[in-house]
Amino acid sequence: MAVGLGITTTRTAAHKDRSRRSMLVGGGYMYRDRIRQNYERLSKNQKRIADFLMTSHREAAFMTASQLAKMLSVDVASITRFAQRLEYRGYPELLDEVQAFVKEEMSAGFRPVEGQSEAGRLFLRTLTVERENLERTLAGISVEAAEQAIQILAHARVIYAVGQHTGGYLAAGLAVRLGLLGLKAVVVTGDGVQISLMARDITAEDAVIGFGFTAYASDVAAVLAVARDRRAKTVGVTGSVVSPIARVADVTLICSATSSTHIPSEVAMNAVIEGIFQTLASQRADVYNSQQQAYSTFYQQFTRYVRYPTAPITETMMKHY
User: Fold this and answer.
1) How far is residue 76 from each of residues 6, 10, 11, 246, measured CA to CA in Å?
2) pLDDT digits over 258-269, tens only?
3) Angle in degrees, CA 53, 54, 58, rounded to 5
4) Which residues of 199-231 are buried (b: 16+ CB within 10 A; e: fewer)?
């Protein structure tokens, strides 16, 4: 069985030809289409495998069935049954397509374009990768999980938004915008002491949403674990089904974070955050309008006492605050 992108397999030429035709049906990669078409009918373990292949395909391309099974905490037979559920004869045939997809994805960034500088090529490649991240996230994310996450946040007494490093900025951005909807939100970030101070009042009536990309999000996972111990509802937004956050959250939303560098992309995660916020905003339109009216009233009073010139509040300004 092939275990890497550069290793020659012992399969017959006829088998390779069948796999190649399968990959190119409709100009795309059949395994991704088959996952999309069958996702809702997959078992819990099979969805776990599907999520990993859709969002972490570069890692999966180098894994044997046993390595993938160990990574996802499932048995090898589950990997085989998953491949057969997608109408492959076994995991090796499925792996062929995953490897071909990764080869195509990686080589696309190095195709020279006449008249473009290296910086220009990398810039365009980054935009292409981000488009693919959005497409993968849209194809693989569970709508049911998104609906559950939105309900959890909508009915929470307090929403604790947790993140470390770049995840902290995402958490802070969401918390500020939730305040516009009349929802009480607290940002939790920093070291252990700061986290404990910010999150000490979590109760069963609250919700905790955590953001993180890799294994370095262990502090965020720890906050979610404590919150679960206190019977609070927890939501994880992360880049992999095997991240620490995904292991402890009640509801997990997986965002593709592939990038042209070693730094995970935030684009798909920002899109998911935006989807959550806009849905809540639509559900709480009356509250939002009331909040904005209160803001407008205070601002008008406030400007009576300031000495610098102020412009009248316009409808356009209101939309951005």
Assistant:
1) 23, 21, 21, 21
2) 887 778 889 999
3) 60
4) beebeeebbbbbbbbeeebebbbbbbebbbeee
Residue 304 vs residues 104, 296, 299, 307: alpha-carbon distances, Å: 62, 13, 9, 8
Q: How confident is the model at residue 175 (pLDDT cuts 50, 70, 90)?
A: very high
Sheet strand arrangement including 159-163: 185-188, 159-163, 207-212, 233-238, 251-254
Domains annotated on the chain, with CATH: 13-112 (1.10.10.10), 143-283 (3.40.50.10490), 285-319 (no CATH)
Using CA atoms, how far residue 186 sits from 1, 18, 21, 124, 178, in Å, is 50, 54, 52, 37, 10
Read off the tokens for 170.
Answer: 């995402």
**Residue 29, φ and ψ in degrees, nearest 5:** -115, 115
Query: Which residue is listed with tokens 């995991």?
Result: 91
